[in-house]
Each structure stands twice: as C-alpha cells, then as structure tokens.
Amino acid sequence: MIKVGEFYTPGKIIFGPGGLSQVGAEAKRLG
C-alpha cells in the first residue's frame, strides 16, 4: 500500500520527498 511519493503510516499520510526521508524507515519496517 505504498505509492510513489506517498507513505501510509499508522493513521497518517505524508506526501512529498520530505515525507519520504522522514518516514522512509518506518515505511520499510511496516512493509
């Protein structure tokens, strides 16, 4: 459930490259 430039976190959706670098690790952990 991960799109390009979009990361779905627990009850949170972050857009943009800033979100990628910010939640990149979390997204990988969540799968």
UniProtKB/TrEMBL annotation:
This is Alcohol dehydrogenase iron-type/glycerol dehydrogenase GldA domain-containing protein. It comes from marine sediment metagenome.
